[in-house]
Amino acid sequence: MGKEKNNFMKGKHWIIVLIIIVSSYGIYTGVKDLKYGKEIWTNESRGILIDNCMRDSKDMAIKYRELTFEYCKCSVEKIQADFTQQEYIQIKEEEIEIQKKKLLPSFETCLTEYQEKIKEDKIKG
């Protein structure tokens, strides 16, 4: 009878180990996805960033609506390519000078192109 009790405990032990392994795999997979930047930007978050960019552009968004929208779209695409949502959120919590230093290199080409198009538009108009 002592042997039966010992075998019974081994069975429970393996069930617990199996549960821990399965749970750990799920946690590991989630952490690995975040570690390798697989945190997915949604269309909704993309839209919010573009809307915020347009709003923050104030008069430029009114005067050069289409050019500003293209600039905002380009900038958001570059930011989303270079940062996960979590990284972006952490950067946005920092002081504005630090934000500029970290984010500007991502969308600097968008800004340069935007400025050139505005200059061209002013020359034409």
Distance between the termini: 97 Å
Q: Roughly how many Å is the radius of gyration?
A: 26 Å
Low-pLDDT runs: 11-35
Number of helices: 6
**Helicity level:** over 70%
SSE pattern, N- to C-terminal: HHHHHH
Counting helices, strands and paired strands, the structural category is mainly alpha
- How many E strands? 0
Principal-axis shape: globular
Instruction: Summarize model confidence as the mean pLDDT.
Output: 80
Beta-strand portion reads under 5%
Main pleated-sheet profile = none
List the defining traits of the structure above.
about 85% helix; single chain; 6 helices; about 120 residues; mainly alpha
Please give a structural write-up:
Helix content is 86%, strand content 0%. It is mostly helical. The longest helix is centred in the first third of the chain and has 34 residues, at 2-35. The radius of gyration is 26 Å and the shape is globular. The relative contact order is 0.08.
